[in-house]
Amino acid sequence: MQNSKGKIVSKAVLFYSEDFKKLDFGIGHPMRGDRYEKALLEFKKEGLLKQLELKEPRLVSKDILEFFHTREYIKRVEAANEGILGYVGEEAPAFRGIFDVGLLSVSAGLNCADELLKGSFELGINFCGGWHHAFEDRGRGFCIFNDIAVIANYLLDKGIGKVMIVDYDAHHGDGTQKAFYNSRDVYTVSLHQDPKTLYPFLTGFEDELGEGRGLGFNRNFPLSTYCQDKEFISKFSLAAEIIVGFRPEFVIVQMGVDGSGECFISNMQLSRKSYDYASKVIAGLQKEIGFRLIVLGGGGFRHPMLGKNWGIQIKNFIGG
Ligand SMILES: [Zn+2]
């Protein structure tokens, strides 16, 4: 969409930095730095960049990480920035620049939140985000800082009353679940491969419903190991009913596509049909309920599958 001066006028903003490529766990690791530019290329091919405003992320103060993370953990990642070998948590190897790119990634998500709070846009996208495994005091499962938890707490601090997290990455969003397990202000819904057969193994089961004030505000939909579209779509329609019931002011989507049959990291066998369905349903609910929407990337480690399946979703979220 363009106005008479040729400037893009869109309800959607996408934050992108060339420096996202520095989020790279190294040769042989599934999480490589080239996934963002490769995905962006697919978005270009689909003409998506003409339908949204592309902005460079503005770095936020590192203190904002304390909306979720402990000061000790933040310091630990900062110390690893200079290239200390080792790990910042299980399945989270340290590398030179880890703090800088970790903060950049969280900043892009917080920039989305700020734009939506100002009312400049209805939809904010950061596809270098969705790090749902990180705990408050450690990195985990390829995730350094849990941007989802930082953003949700930031929104609450800004006076937002009800935030919903909808996560359909192949893996259970365990760090995010843990962050809000006792909260009724942030409702967490996750669809994922049966955790008996996939990381994180210990959580993500149906009977985890929240605790204390948060009881009834956490839902998991574990899907069968080789889940196909039919099962995903039927369970996602139940998740949609939960969104309608909660009537959130903000929805944060983790749109991971590592449940695709083309991605080696899970056993799930989803096609583009599932991602098309989920994103169309969310876009429809946004029209109905009027919530503001933040979309974060999550998993997906094959190309061009990653950019294609993220692209289908972004197109639907924009309303194209
Ligand atoms: Zn995943």
Describe the structure.
With 320 residues, the chain is an alpha/beta fold. The protein has a single domain (12-318), classed as 3-Layer(aba) Sandwich (Arginase, Chain A). The protein is built from eight helices and ten strands. The chain has helices spanning 35-45, 71-80, 98-118, 147-157, 174-179, 229-246, 272-289, 305-318; strands at 12-15, 53-55, 87-89, 92-93, 123-126, 163-167, 186-193, 218-223, 250-254, 292-296. Helix 3 (98-118) packs parallel to helix 4, helix 6 (229-246) runs parallel beside helix 7 and helix 7 packs parallel to helix 8 (305-318). The model has no long low-confidence stretch (mean pLDDT 95). Bound molecules: zinc ion. Zinc ion binds at residues 169-171, 256, 258, 299.
Estimated radius of gyration: 18 Å
Bulk shape? globular
State the low-pLDDT regions, or none.
Answer: none
Number of domains: 1
Please provide the count of β strands.
10
Query: Helices and strands, in N-to-C order?
Result: EHEHEEHEHEHEEHEHEH
Average pLDDT, all residues:
95
Classify the fold: give the CATH topology: Arginase, Chain A
Helix fraction? Answer: 25-40%
CATH class descriptor name: Alpha Beta
The major beta sheet can be summarized as: 8 strands, parallel
Q: List all distinct small molecules, including ions and cofactors, that are bound in this structure.
A: zinc ion
